[in-house]
Amino acid sequence: MQWWCSAVGVDWTWAWRAYPGVWLFVLGVVVGARAIAGRNAWREATAGERAAIVGGVLLLWASLDWPLGPIAAGYLVSAHALQFLIETMLAAPLILYALRASFGRRVEARGARPLPGAVRALFHPLIAVVLFNVIVAVTHVPSVVDALMPSGGGAFLVDSAWFFSGIVFWWPVIMPAPRYAHFGVPMKILYLLIGTLFHTVIGMVLLSAETPIYGIYELAPPILPVPPRADQQLGGGIMEIGVFFAIVVGSGILFFRWAARDEQRAR
Amino acid sequence: MSDSPGVTEVAVARPGFTLTGTDGKPFDFRDRTAGRLTFLEFGYTHCPDVCPVHMANLAASLARLPPSDRMRIDVVFVSIDPDRDSLPALRKWLDAFDPTFIGLTGSRAALDSAQQAVGFAPAIVQAPAPGATAEVVNHAAPVLAFTADDTAHVMYPFGTRQADWARDLPRLLARGAPPVAVARAYIVIPAGAAPAALYLSATNAGPAADTIVAVSAGDLGNVMLHRSMEDASGMMMMHAVTGVAVPAGGSARLAPGGFHGMIDPVTRPLQRGERIPLTVRFARAGTIRAIATVIAYADVDTATTPD
């Protein structure tokens, strides 16, 4: 039994397999979320927040566990891209959205500096966007992917780095603290747009490369009658369209809430 | 010859085994592929990893070559699992990669001897693993690359990537190749009992001019070299020629409205897509083998238009 999904290079079968490391990781995320939200958070949460935390955790679990996890780890670049999209652009913001209000209440109760200095620095928009893009860049370098994905530890490193980078990236946009002057809604929208520009570059590389760039996926036992390059192009398309869609939705929510607040204030 | 990881240098002469093609006819490997860059793989269609990955990567790499180079290459896949790989099943499996890939199989004894002819241990059929239903065939995984000098100098292991093929294909095409090359060869299906036209392109990378002096299409019929020319009254006239000049560093075409081959009489009906072995004799470079594809008259313009 493997503890984490990795590229094993054997013929794919639809027989279910257990990945206990994934369950522990998801459990760890739930425990971490509870620690951030506080003890009474679930009781005080709105229906939308409950749906967001359940949806976010389930999406994260689905992206890491069988069947998407092992397919993404060792068979299809497109599944790998979908996994990336779910972890960074869906699960992370949904979980943060669910924690937003309860975390805000705890911050107010504790005072102005609710986070340790190092964590506070991590969520500075400038540091967050740089860290997010560095993680995204490094974890998409072909030699890094080919070296890490065949081992459980390497694949775990990639998956946890993605989820962590998603949390870091979305934190300044969604969470109420730490607050930074001049980082209002227009800046947040700009942050989302600029912060994901690098994805466009990766998506373009996947779409336009003449040959498959990841050996792991090029030499994987075929799982679908799709040539490796077409699979890679599909992965590029998922990166391009998926991330764009997530950013448009995120920016849209920010803008309309801002506009609604403005209108309320004007009344 | 290759910088690709895992590639092994070998010296294997093009073997002379005869197996059955997916068309049900005998296929003499040495005779049918002589002088051409030929990739030979032994495998089976139920193979979960090595065979489909090799075939997919080769197909993708060959598809990126210019048509004139692509036509100089054969891929021969020998199924070493004749019990499960019927000829139609083998053809269908290869068609999913590239319809021009050649599929062969035969009796176990013939297959064993074909593998031994290139220095491979014969494949071994293993009973299904516990919990599995399908038999596994243990077989040699490398792809042998026979170049124009009828020798395989390199063997590509599983793990050879498309980027490796893209880098090595031009080198393999050049290895042992004479300065002249024949590509884009087509035979047009004649109407009724009329003669069949033969078109091709010849290139000469050498320092001296050469001449095509004869073309043979095996048992298909006698090939004559002709030239169509307009006379003073504007009538198209056709007359026999003794050769077609291919200038040094240049090329010549047998094409509609100019020099062309004429197969008369055609000894048997032709099927669109059929591949006919040709022997083209040059005055200086000697004999070059090529493959002509049989096309319909409607395809002539597309097929004979230069790249």
Describe the structure.
The complex is a heterodimer of chains A (267) and B (307). In chain A, 74% of the residues lie in helices and 0% in strands. Chain A has helices at 20-37, 41-44, 47-64, 68-74, 77-110, 117-122, 125-138, 142-148, 152-174, 185-195, 197-208, 215-218, 228-266. The model of chain A has no long low-confidence stretch (mean pLDDT 93). Chain B is built from 7 helices and 20 strands. In chain B, 41% of the residues are buried. In chain B, the strands form 3 sheets. In chain B, strands 11, 12, 13, 14, 15, 16, 17, 18, 19 and 20 form a 10-stranded mixed β-sheet that branches. In chain B, strands 1-10-9-4-5-6-2-3 form an 8-stranded mixed β-sheet. Chain B has a two-stranded antiparallel ribbon with strand order 7-8. Helix content of chain B is 20%, strand content 37%. In chain B, strand 5 (73-79), helix 4 (87-95) and strand 6 (102-105) form a beta-alpha-beta unit. Classes of the chains: A mainly alpha (267), B alpha+beta (307).
Structural class of chain B: alpha+beta
Strand segment count of chain B: 20
As residue ranges, the low-confidence spans of chain A are none
Q: What value does the average pLDDT of chain A take?
A: 93
What shape does the CA trace of chain A take?
Answer: globular
User: Low-confidence stretches of chain B at least 5 residues in length (pLDDT < 50)?
Assistant: none
Terminal-residue CA separation of chain A: 62 Å
